[in-house]
Each structure stands twice: as C-alpha cells, then as structure tokens.
C-alpha cells in the first residue's frame, strides 16, 4: 500500500485537514465529496456502515450525524486519534467506532455491514482486487468506492507526484467488480479539474472553475474527461 508510512507520521496528521479541506478550493472539494458519499449511501439512518481508510473521520462523522452506526478502519493510529476527537466534539462517539486494521484482512464476519465504502483509497492500493473482495465479503448489500481515471488529465502529471497514484481504466474497474462478485448499479464521474489543483485556488476562483466543470459535465465529453469516478455496486 503506497503511503502507508507517510500517513502514520504525527506531523502529517496534524496538518492533514488544514492543508487539504479547510479553506478555498479545498473546502469546496470537501463539500462535493461529502455530497457524493451521502448520495451514494442514502438513506443512511439506522444502517450499519464500514468506512475503509477512514483517515480523520470526515465521512464517518458525517454519516453518524445522519443516524448511521459507523465503524471507521484505518492503518494510521494518529489519523484515528484525530477521528475520535472529532467524533466526541460532534457528539456522535456513541454511534461511531474507530479501529486500526488492514483493509486486506478485515476483522469482521461475512455480511456484517449494510454498506461498505472507501474514498481516496484505491489510488494507493497495490492489490485492489483483494481489497474489493474483502469489502464485498463483509457487506450484505452495498459497496461504494472511488478510482482515479487513466484517461483523465491526471495522467499528464501523475508521474511527478511524490507517491504517484494508481490510475484505472474502465476495463480494470469492470474486472475488479466481476472478481468481487459485485454488480454495478450506478456510477458518477467528477472533477475535470483535478482536486489537487482545486486545493490551491481561492474559494471564488474554485467556484468559477466548478461552474465550468458543470457545463462540461452536460456534454458527451464530461464523463470521459473526469478525473475521479464513484462506483456504487451491490453484492450479488
């Protein structure tokens, strides 16, 4: 798994959300990602949900606030510590449990959750098929995950990133779904402008870029140029 050591550094965790989601374009991408997760999993009330690679718990806390019982799993103890503090502050720690663990060997029995999801995870995966099979194994119904797209503009600069990212073709995603015995029920393709760029933009400029993106989304090129895809599947 790429970034395994990096995400466990205390200094990285301390500034993780502040650098990525607290201002300008980062705040906008945080909002848009939360909307995508919420729409994919809705309705979440009384559902038992597992988040893989939950990080500091920004999605897990949101879902617990909406009435779900959530388990957030991550490899990074410092990230989980931030998540627990956030859950206590939001008053949802009685509906949210954080666990340290390996996504390739989930410590849960078959069909344990109503839904399992992973966001900003599969671009770091060294054995994505293995992870997706585990997610499907512990879910009764639904699996939601996200991939970075090989045909997008991200492929032009991916090599220059410190850890790089795994980029996926549609054929690879279909193969992973088949191997995990999952049936795709919905897909959403977003961010013609990669959100790494969004984070560097002032809020007003980011919103202007977003309006352009929405116009492109309404054309036949929208899905093809999107840098991120959200896949919503059901267990067969």
Automatic annotation (TrEMBL):
EC number: 2.1.1.-
MF terms (GO), sorted A to Z: methyltransferase activity
GO biological process: methylation
Gene3D superfamilies, per the entry: Vaccinia Virus protein VP39
The keyword rRNA-binding is annotated on this UniProt entry: no
Keyword list, A-Z: Methyltransferase, Transferase
A Pfam match: Methyltransf_25
Ranges for domain Methyltransferase: 49-140
Protein name (record): Class I SAM-dependent methyltransferase
Source species of the chain: Halosimplex aquaticum
């Amino acid at each position: 798994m790429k970034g395994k050591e990096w995400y466990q550094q205390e200094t990285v965790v301390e500034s993780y959300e502040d650098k990525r989601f607290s201002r300008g374009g980062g705040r906008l991408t945080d909002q848009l990602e939360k909307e995508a997760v919420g729409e994919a999993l809705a309705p979440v009330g009384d559902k038992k949900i597992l988040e893989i690679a939950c990080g500091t718990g920004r999605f897990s806390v949101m879902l617990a606030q909406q009435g779900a019982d959530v388990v957030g799993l991550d490899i990074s103890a410092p990230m989980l510590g931030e998540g627990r503090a956030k859950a206590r502050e939001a008053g949802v720690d009685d509906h949210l449990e954080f666990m340290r663990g390996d996504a390739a060997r989930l410590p849960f029995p078959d069909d344990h959750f109503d839904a399992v999801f992973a966001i900003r995870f599969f671009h770091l995966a060294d054995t994505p098929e293995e992870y997706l099979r585990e997610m499907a194994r512990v879910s009764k119904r639904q699996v939601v995950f996200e991939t970075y797209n090989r045909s997008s503009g991200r492929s032009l600069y991916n090599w220059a990133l410190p850890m790089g990212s795994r980029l996926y073709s549609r054929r690879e995603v279909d193969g992973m779904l088949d191997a995990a015995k999952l049936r795709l029920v919905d897909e959403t393709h977003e961010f013609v402008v990669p959100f790494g760029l969004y984070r560097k933009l002032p809020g007003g400029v980011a919103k202007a870029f977003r309006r352009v993106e929405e116009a492109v989304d309404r054309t036949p090129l929208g899905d093809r140029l999107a840098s991120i895809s959200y896949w919503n599947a059901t267990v067969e």
